[in-house]
């Protein structure tokens, strides 16, 4: 496997198991009493995943609900760890799993930009440099100095999106969050993503929209029941997937 | 280990912001706001003075201050443990959505309480002067004792915060243990009244030399007992290394277990 910088993410032979407990025990007492007798079901969310994501490419993850797309994204971002196999990530990762995660409701939008930016691992200086862009992009106007608990859900998400895409990560992971705000804002998000693509950022993104994959991605992965069903040029994978879906429904 | 510490350092901005958040959010919406940080210890002094001078007359001279100089560092430990214990579980939504070194959460609680303790000195020092307790050069030992206590508290809180993800009833057990621990530490009584037979047992309690040292420098104006403090510094450093290693191992499944 090469590690000379051609690939931003290298996933080799990765498996991920979740233990599904019938009755989840959390107390010491119960753990002692039911030692080894607890009913645990194993669920393999990902099986034998091998994937190279070239630096600067945008890769779309498609597949039905429960196929392991989000799990894969969480493994790359190190929120979860693989049960087997290895993942190498080169560069700084910014994850968009949920917009505005980590906002404090009592703080103003401006304060939350600094809080959220720092949770994503960026310094005050880096955030300061982009503060105006972030505020402008979020279209919050004077609301930026109001506590975010007064925000509408649209405003909240716009701010969350704006922080994550402006802090300049090397790798951006996006999980179905592009359906934010009104159509005009969605269009703006797409423009912003194209900007990031032009700057040579690597983007991995989960979506249910084949159109978005065709439009934005160079490559695509189709996951089915935790396994890679197809991997290649976005156009081709989307065609395979929609053909399969058509067959599954009718 | 080195990588782990470096990564925590890289997230120092988050650490700083979380501490600022804790300090501000605690008093947000209250009229006196941040001044509560000072009013709490101030009211403590006033109430203790009334109770111990008029109601329950203590035999120790200046008992209010005798108690107060020991209670503040104890509160630093107890609040850090009780709040730090739940820090990862309480931030579950964040932990499941964003990657950051999880150590930042418990450490931010320790730092918040450390700053609160330092701020309470602004009440303690004038109070010592008012109660006519002489301030001596022994106060220069303060940063050293504080570092030893912080090492110990950080190690303990790191360990407990990650353990609580797996064993939720630690929350309840710890409350009881903290109460017992308070009574088994010479805080509201001097170490000199501990029966000789039990003395060794009391000095197994790692917080005893810390409390004694603080009382020495603030109340008696004497230097700490360097031997026991030095030993504790060594033990705490080893414990901190162990805690970091244990944390590193168990934090991997934290997002799944919460």
Molecular structure report:
The complex is a heterodimer of chains A (about 250) and B (about 260). By secondary structure, chain A is an alpha/beta fold. Chain A has a domain at about 100-170. Helices cover about 35% and strands about 25% of the residues of chain A. Chain A is built from eight helices and nine strands. Chain A has helices spanning about 30-35, 70-75, 110-120, 125-140, 155-165, 185-200, 210-215, 235-250; strands spanning about 5-20, 40-55, 60, 85-90, 95, 170-175, 200-205, 220-225, 225-235. In chain A, the strands form two sheets. A six-stranded mixed sheet of chain A has the order 5-6-7-3-8-9, with helices on both faces. In chain A, strands 2-1-4 form a three-stranded antiparallel sheet, with helices on one face. In chain A, helix 3 (about 110-120) packs across helix 5 (about 155-165). Chain B has about 260 residues and is mainly alpha-helical. Chain B has one domain (about 1-255). Helix content of chain B is about 75%, strand content about 0%. Chain B contains 13 helices and no strands. In chain B, helix 2 (about 10-25) crosses helix 7, helix 4 runs parallel beside helix 8 and helix 7 packs antiparallel against helix 8. The mean pLDDT of chain B is about 90. The interface of A and B includes residues 78, 79 and 120 of A.
Q: Could you outline the blueprint of secondary structure elements for this entry?
A:
The complex is a heterodimer of chains A (250) and B (258).
Chain A: E1 7-21, H1 28-33, E2 40-54, E3 58-62, H2 69-76, E4 84-89, E5 93-96, H3 109-119, H4 124-138, H5 153-166, E6 171-175, H6 183-198, E7 202-206, H7 210-216, E8 219-224, E9 227-233, H8 234-249
Parallel strand pairs in A: 3-7, 3-8, 5-6, 6-7
Antiparallel strand pairs in A: 1-2, 1-4, 8-9
Helix pairs in contact in A: 3-4, 3-5, 4-5
Chain B: H1 2-10, H2 12-27, H3 36-55, H4 63-85, H5 87-90, H6 92-97, H7 104-130, H8 142-166, H9 170-183, H10 196-202, H11 207-220, H12 226-250, H13 254-257
Helix pairs in contact in B: 2-7, 3-4, 3-7, 4-7, 4-8, 4-9, 4-11, 7-8, 8-11, 8-12
